[in-house]
Amino acid sequence: MAEGQALEVEELGGRQGPLGSMALPWTLTDTIFAGLESLLVFLVYAQTLRFEFVLDDFPLILQNPLVLVPWRSVPQFFVEGYFDRMFPTDPHNVYRPLLSVWLVLNQKLWGFNPGGWHLVAVLLLALVTLEVYSLGRRVLKSRPLAALAAALFALHPIHVESTAWVIGMNESLMAALFIASILAYLRFRDPDRNRGLWLGTSLACFALALLTKEESIVLPALVASIVWIDGRRDQGSRPTDLISRLRGALASSAPYWGLAAAYLAARFEILHGLGHTATQMPFGALPQTIPAVLWSDIRLLVWPSGLSIFYASPFIASASVSNFVLPSLIVLAVAGGLLAWGTRSRAAAWAATWVFIPILPFLDLPILPDGDFVHDRYLYLSSVGFVMLLALAIREAGERLQPRIKSVGIQLLVFAAVGLAYCKLTLADSRFWANQMELDAHAATASPGSNFALDRLAHQYSEHGQCGIAAAIYQKVLARSPRYWMAYLNLGACQYQAGDYGAALDELAQAAKLAPGDPDVLFFIGLTQFRLRHFDVAEVALRRAIEIRPYGVGYHLALGMLLEAEGDKAEALAEFRRELAYHPDESAARAEIGR
User: Fold this and answer.
1) Nearest by Cα to 163 from 211, 126, 204, 203
2) CB contact at 8 A, 495 and 511
């Protein structure tokens, strides 16, 4: 296409032509835009390079022996669940072999230096931002509009959790493969003699995305939606009947559905089921809770203020106007508005589809922990569609507010206002991820109704020797949620550290009733009985904990100290060495061996 024709298509703003068809050749302008988008990501997230490891970084990176395995052991990742070796007796819903490979690779590169890991997280977000720009060029058919969408994506605070948190970068890794698959599929739809190569590339990227994170299973539905939206009747065109549109959508996406089915079959075999229940809900609670979850997701996308690692989101057993009727009306109003907009614009229709389809896997609420149904990272893929909708809305606002000749100025003004607001929120929310104490204190302040947030804050006080403050927080959690067994466990651990072994056993016994077989509960029961010199009971508890979780931090060390107290020094030495083999940085085990 000649440059003049390309500019003409660009001025049309994507209102004509098949959805996702290539209209704009890559030029110097694109290179400049791409460079600016990458620079924007680094400027916004530069402070994270000084941050520490937090939350699940400890068990999944620092204390995870799998990140230290030799390369010859990597194929084993593909025939086991993500948590199988860490928690072998528990049912899990996570199969992410490519994430395990990714963690091994980064450990080889950076060791346990958090700066290197954080750099990779920022690089991944920059890569996804460039892919969003490339996707915008195809769908929006406008370089400035695509650049605007990509800039909003880079600045959107919803990505703080996935970029400032090391283990959260799995969202960016999955999204990079997911969007690459869509881009390759759109290229496959172009009249090109290499169409087979592009389809193969798209399917390969989809397969890799599936092996990275489960939510990528929605990709076939997005592929089908492209053909479905393209087949509708536009002004001046001949209508396409619904059956033909459906047949075309299913035929075009058939290879992707086939690959998804193969993935689900493998997942079923490895995890012994498609999903395992984590939250027992009363009858009717699921449909009553979904509108509130959707409303929270919409609010976080539109105005992401007050972000937190945890949100108070319990299931709704009794519907009311505030927790069910009002959220339902808001969700229906938003869906209706987007549906009406989509009838006027193919790009808007597909962007809206991209917002809602990726949320669907997270509406299977029973597989998620109770009260933990909303997270920023769950909206990573949805944010791609949202920023495209936002870019289209900014363009339309400019055109409506001023004559065509002045619309560009209005668009830039609106973009500057939204972009600056997002930038300010992102910079502010990022700093809370600097270390564990800041993160937990912020979460408890931002989400005081979240048991997870209060439990984490109390744990920090306990770690810093302030067990009195920690115990008060745990008791507050238990007063409103008597079956929250983690609070019993942590309260017992806190009392153990304070030397109140009798009280510790009482709380740990409550935890054992609510979570029988949890290895951490057994571990602290063993430690407490050891301090009370009930060696036989302590040994049974510690050996059972090790049987359930062989890699548990401190498990073998504790058993070794018990065996030494019983006079079995040879076996005690063997346990100290096992602890050191699983956790090479465990200085206490090294000291015991040296002694």
Assistant:
1) 126
2) no
Other Cβ atoms closer than 10 A to 193: 6
Contact 388, 136 (CB under 8 A): yes
- Name which of 346, 379, 335, 389 is nearest 152 in CA terms: 389
CA dist 325 and 564 (Å) reads 63
Q: Where are the domains of the chain?
A: 3-433, 436-594
Q: Are 174 and 213 in contact (CB under 8 A)?
A: yes
Task: Report how far residue 456's alpha carbon sits from residue 308's, in angstroms, rounded to the nearest whole number.
Answer: 13
CATH of 436-594 among 1.20.1250.20, 3.40.50.720, 2.30.38.10, 1.25.40.10? 1.25.40.10
Coil, strand or helix: which one is 377? helix
Quick one: pLDDT at residue 5?
38
The closest alpha carbon to 348, from 337, 332, 360, belongs to 337
Distance CA 376, CA 160 (A): 8
Identify the pLDDT of residue 12. Answer: 39
Q: What DSSP string describes 321-371?
A: IIIIIHHHHHHHHHHHHHHHHHTT-HHHHHHHHHHHGGGGGGG-GGGSPTB
Instruction: Give the closest residue to 217 by CA, choosing from 300, 93, 40, 77.
Output: 93
Q: Which residues of the chain have pLDDT under 70?
A: 1-23, 86-91, 232-240, 401-408
Please provide the size of the chain in residues. Answer: 595
